[in-house]
Design goal:
Layout (H helix, E strand, L loop, with lengths): L8 H7 L10 E5 L4 H12 L3 E8 L7 H16 L4 E7 L8 H12 L10 H13 L4 H4 L15 H10 L16 H17 L4 H22 L7 H6 L2 H13 L9 H11 L5 E4 L3 E6 L2 E6 L7 E2 L2
Parallel strand pairs: 1-2, 2-3
Antiparallel strand pairs: 4-5, 4-7, 5-6
Helix pairs in contact: 2-7, 5-8, 5-9, 9-11, 11-12
């Protein structure tokens, strides 16, 4: 393949399955140095966009700063091919303790500019669906990541991103933690998905990814219907279809709150308050809901400890 980003029919075939903005737009890319994010950057530039690369150094392993040096090499090489790209390296601290993977992810997301795109592929999407399935996620959770500007390469496979890096001779980083089976995602990647493929007698990744897309569409349709349900009006809420009532309550609880959406039991407790079975309840994360004169009110959590208080 030519060393110029303007050449290469193979890349054009991949671009048709990506969700990049029109040529000339500025795209912020989160680039760890792994093949997926490096391939993402190469495709962004091949699509005619300009790029700002943000590399987050968690400092979780010795020599992690070397990853940033590799990303710098990638940026320099793509710039020499004609890409318009600049690099920013951000250092964050993740202290010792439980849930290291989740805390590192939170620190990374906090360090990234709003709207930054990531190199999550179809394989990552399927891993996310399966992890959420075994953790009891609802329809919204099983829809996983939505295709669009923030996740522009969900239509591509991990193997295709490695091909992009090889074709353009771009250096990449190998993160040893990706093989550590102490992490649930790695067990899903290396054990569960191969087992499912063996049982099904075919590659299940496109199948599950397609189902996630269908669930995303259906979730969006239900969300639109739920917009007509006033979650603070007790009469409206109790007379609505339970599916729409739950969605309306979940959206209301999330307004102005950080972190994950309330779980099923928390939403059900709010509906119990609306139905007159309780006067108030605490809902994670730290939200208190009470009923008064046919209306529901939301505030900071009191002392119900996640339980419904008698009416």
């Amino acid at each position: 393949m030519s060393s110029s980003l303007a050449a290469g029919g193979d890349l054009l075939g991949l671009l048709s399955r990506c969700d990049f903005p029109p040529p000339g737009n500025l795209v912020t890319c989160a680039v760890s140095g792994g093949p997926d994010s490096v391939g993402l950057l190469a495709l962004v530039l091949r699509a005619g966009c300009e790029a700002v690369v943000v590399h987050v150094d968690h400092g979780l392993r010795p020599g992690s700063a070397a990853d940033g040096e590799v990303v710098g090499e990638v940026v320099a090489k793509l710039a020499a091919m004609g890409g318009r790209v600049e690099l920013r390296i951000v250092k964050v601290e993740v202290g010792p303790g439980p849930n290291l993977e989740a805390r590192a992810r939170s620190a990374r997301l906090a360090a990234l500019p709003s709207g930054a795109c990531t190199g999550h592929t179809m394989d990552d999407q399927v891993e996310t669906v399966l992890i959420r399935l075994i953790r009891g996620a609802s329809l919204d959770g099983l829809a996983a990541m939505r295709r669009g500007p923030r996740h522009p390469i969900l239509g591509l496979r991990r193997s295709e991103m490695r091909l992009v890096c090889r074709e353009l001779d771009l250096p990449t980083v190998t993160d040893p933690s990706n093989s550590d089976t102490r992490f649930v995602r790695n067990r899903v990647r290396h054990e569960l998905i191969p087992l499912l493929c063996d049982i099904a007698g075919r590659d299940v990744v496109p199948v599950i990814a397609r189902q996630a897309g269908i669930m995303a569409e259906e979730s969006g349709f239900l969300e639109g219907l739920a917009e007509d349900v006033d979650p603070t009006d007790v009469h409206v809420l109790t007379s609505s279809d339970p599916v729409l009532a739950r969605r309306a309550v979940r959206r209301w609880l999330r307004q102005g709150e950080e972190g994950y959406p309330p779980d099923y039991s928390g939403v059900e407790r709010v509906l119990a308050v609306a139905g007159g079975f309780a006067g108030a309840t605490d809902v994670a994360p730290g939200v208190h809901v009470r009923r008064s004169r046919g209306k529901l009110y939301k505030g900071a959590a009191g002392g119900a400890g996640g339980r419904c208080a008698p009416g």
